[in-house]
Amino acid sequence: MQTHLYDIAIIGGGIVGLSTAMALVTEHPISVIVLEAEDRLAAHQTGNNSGVIHSGLYYKPGSLKAKNCAEGREAMYQFCEAHDIPHERCGKVVVAIEERELPALDALYERGTANRLQGLKRLNGSELKEYEPHLVGIAGLLVPDTGIVDYTQIANTYAKLIAKAGGVIQVGAQVTGCHRLSNELRLETTQGEIRTRYLINCAGLYSDRIAKMCGVDTKIQIVPFRGEYYELTPEKEHLVNNLIYPVPDARFPFLGVHFTRMIQGGIEAGPNAVLAFKREGYQRSSFDPRDSWQTFSNPGFWRLAGKYWQTGFGEFYRSFSSQAFVQALQRLIPEVETTDVTRAGAGVRAQAMEPSGALVDDFRIVHAKRMTHVLNAPSPAATASLSIGQTIAALWAKDHEEGL
User: Fold this and answer.
1) pLDDT of 252-262, one tens digit each?
2) Which fold has domain 222-246+256-359?
3) What is the CA radius of gyration of the chain?
4) Cβ-contact 57, 143 below 8 angstroms
5) Which of 136, 226, 234, 365 is deepest in the core (most CB within 10 A)?
6) Are 278 and 292 in contact (CB under 8 A)?
7) What is the pLDDT of residue 179?
8) Domain range summary for the chain, segments of one domain joined by +
């Protein structure tokens, strides 16, 4: 007996895969199935981030990140309102601690202005104190468009809307093979064969391997970076009003250790960005031989390491030393002591790397015959998920119209 032939199969039950499925199944009379390897949705990047609705301050004007973040941010606020999801447009401050950081702060202001952020405002040292009294800094930016939300709740709401529109979501269905036929694709999964006319790869940490399995040579490779968090003790939560960020290092697609007020309560501090030895390496002891070999056997990684080994060593040291982590926090709020924080969770960022060793900065979506592969969609992908989903759905619609 032949299995059902779906119009589209989406690999990955994170927020990008689900937003794409929702865009497709609610706007087109087609059959869609989402295949998630884990036993639950939003198990990885979606469910292990800081819950920030990003403003779009950092991204190069005209880039996919800038465009999708701006559109997705406002769509996210509207979605939360429409579905009664707790959220808050609370704003954040970005702080320059030293004189040498002022040019980078100026550059951020120019980017934010180019990206049409509303209410963006320069702050001097005394004005910073009006928003965050315990903060130290010589200058800063007020970014009112930033907010907070629970992205796992967002993802689960997407899933309910997909099911209501007739879409299928299958958890515990790891894709282990892909075979091209003349007019369809056949996917081998741990729950049996899936037949589909079109495939969309939103597999996050495994997106490069899925692409290769499907016969698409993308050249890039996912390198996992673990981001570890601490939480302030309840007695010290008064030190932070909303969100406080340092001026980031422009060489890396990471924002530096920062303070975030969470929508469910509490203050989170972090994350750092340390190389993980396993793609699902949420613990410092996590290790997978295949994942590690794939990283260390890549010449591009050694080019990256040779250029930034001091930064990488510092991240490793901070991973194992609570005191070193707190010292990074004290640059922003000197009153924070080691006894004021407790270790919390961790997330793993699926960061794509070029063969040259350069870390891919923008979103990366690769098109192939009857396939779309989302190969780099780290932060702000959760913020931009509604916009990204619409973008990918439009790619399918174009292919469908052209009969590809």
Assistant:
1) 656 678 999 99
2) D-Amino Acid Oxidase; Chain A, domain 2 (3.30.9)
3) 21
4) yes
5) 226
6) yes
7) 95
8) 5-46+152-220+362-402, 92-144, 222-246+256-359
